[in-house]
Design brief:
By secondary structure, this protein is of the alpha+beta class. It has one domain. Helices cover about 35% and strands about 15% of the residues. The protein is built from three helices and two strands, in the order αββαα. A two-stranded antiparallel sheet has the order 1-2. Helix 2 packs antiparallel against helix 3. It is globular and about 35 Å long. The two termini are about 25 Å apart.
């Protein structure tokens, strides 16, 4: 949706992970009045590794070098 550089891709499946695992381990963030469910860091790393695209492998290296996320319990939102 939208146009670069503000385009959003909506994916219904991704390689290397299952929806149930991603949903269970999701990170929930609040942006203004919108609650967003984001893939967890471990599932994101699995997906990046399986894709084998150069950009994803670069992302994986950066994620492995100390990227952190704060996870909210989905019951708190």
């Amino acid at each position: 949706m939208g146009y670069p550089p503000f385009r959003i891709d909506i994916l219904t499946t991704i390689d290397g992970v299952e929806f149930t695992d991603c949903y269970q381990n999701r990170v929930i963030i609040q942006h203004d009045a919108v609650t967003l469910n984001i893939i967890g860091i471990n599932e994101l790393k699995k997906n990046k590794q399986v894709s084998r695209r150069m950009k994803d492998l670069e992302d994986l290296m950066n994620l492995s070098n100390g990227s952190t996320c704060t996870k909210m319990n989905h019951k708190d939102v």
